[in-house]
Write a structure and sequence with these properties.
154 residues; Alpha-Beta Plaits; two-stranded antiparallel sheet; two-stranded antiparallel ribbon; 4 helices; 19% strand; globular
Length: 154
């Protein structure tokens, strides 16, 4: 089975929030972003909008940080998820994630994208293609390991 993950193009993100709205509607049936599993960071100095969502890392730092073994990776799909029965919302995973993709909701519950069972609505609703869900080994422009590039270098 081919594994899929998210690919982000910050230079295409307008910060419209459609991804956050879609996530919120799917997950909690409300039009609010407080419990969305994706958030958009505005880098004021650079004028960029950066979507943050779980990238289902090959070797997730969040799993290593979790003392309760509440974060697991499905070997078949490659998707990382939180076992709600084990998680005590300690937030060690939040600090460990290098992509800022583990979210703390207003009620202090730790949240992570579960890719909507393989059909993520956030990517589907993105009007600019800044957020895409594609095969890890093919991606949108090659393997995931080569997809991240430093846009601040000249």
């Amino acid at each position: 089975m081919s594994q899929k993950t998210f690919f982000i193009r910050a230079d295409s993100c307008t910060g419209c929030g459609m991804c956050q709205l879609a996530c919120s509607l799917v997950k909690v049936k409300e039009a609010g972003t407080g419990r969305s599993r994706i958030f958009i960071e505005r880098l004021v100095m650079d004028g960029l909008m950066v979507p943050h969502i779980c990238l289902n890392c090959k070797s997730p730092a969040c799993i290593k940080a979790c003392r309760r073994k509440a974060i697991v990776k499905d070997q078949a799909t490659g998707w990382v998820s939180i076992d709600r029965e084990r998680c005590n919302n300690c937030t060690l995973c939040v600090a460990a994630c290098p992509f800022g993709a583990v979210i703390v909701a207003p009620d202090n519950e730790v949240l992570m994208c579960d890719v909507c069972g393989g059909n993520p609505k956030c990517a589907e609703m993105c009007p600019t293609g800044a957020l895409r869900f594609a095969e890890r080994d093919r991606g949108v422009a090659g393997p995931a390991e080569k997809a991240a590039e430093n846009i601040f270098k000249g």
